[in-house]
Design a protein that fits this description.
Elements lengths: L1 H16 L6 E2 L5 E2 L41 H18 L1 H4 L4 E10 L6 E10 L7 E11 L2 E7 L1
Antiparallel strand pairs: 1-2, 3-4, 4-5, 5-6
Length: about 150
């Protein structure tokens, strides 16, 4: 029953949109006639008589304004993203309380918008209940507008 109802709705929508080209009979025996499309002839303009033409205007492309000093290069943006991610990881309890060390950047990639980056970091720390053993941790930090948006441990 549901399929017949959905099918009849699709048929009705197609007929209303003007897609149907013949009469359609629905499951409940209703006949749907296609809509007629009225067309109006396109009026064509007569070609203009040849007259004197004005000389063609010459245009020059405007040069873009010089880069302002507030714009950062890709390398500067990357350094800022890496620094923001490092500061965030250093603020985590799992880094501070378990003597995190050897923080290294594995990867940094820009993800589209201004200040949106993904930075992968790794560090070592002492195991919580076995301080004589070392644990290797990878952290995936996503930045949005130069601030931490999400992070996951891998």
């Amino acid at each position: 029953m549901r399929i017949a109802y959905i099918l009849s709705l699709l048929v009705i929508m197609a007929a209303v949109a003007g897609c149907a080209t013949q009469e359609i009979t629905t499951a409940d025996e209703r006949v749907i006639k296609p809509t007629s499309m009225k067309t109006t002839p396109v009026e064509q303009e007569e070609p203009a008589a040849e007259t004197e033409t004005a000389p063609a205007k010459t245009t020059t492309k405007a040069t873009p304004p010089p880069a302002t000093s507030t714009e950062m290069t890709f390398e500067q943006e990357e350094a800022k993203a890496v620094e923001a991610a490092k500061e965030f990881v250093k603020s985590l309890d799992g880094y501070k309380l378990q003597q995190g060390r050897e923080l290294q950047v594995l990867n940094a990639a820009k993800t589209g918008c201004e200040g949106c980056w993904v930075v992968d970091l790794s560090f070592t720390r002492d195991l919580l209940y076995y301080p004589d053993k070392i644990e290797y941790i990878k952290v995936h930090v996503a930045l949005k507008n130069w601030k931490m948006d999400t992070y996951t441990f891998r």
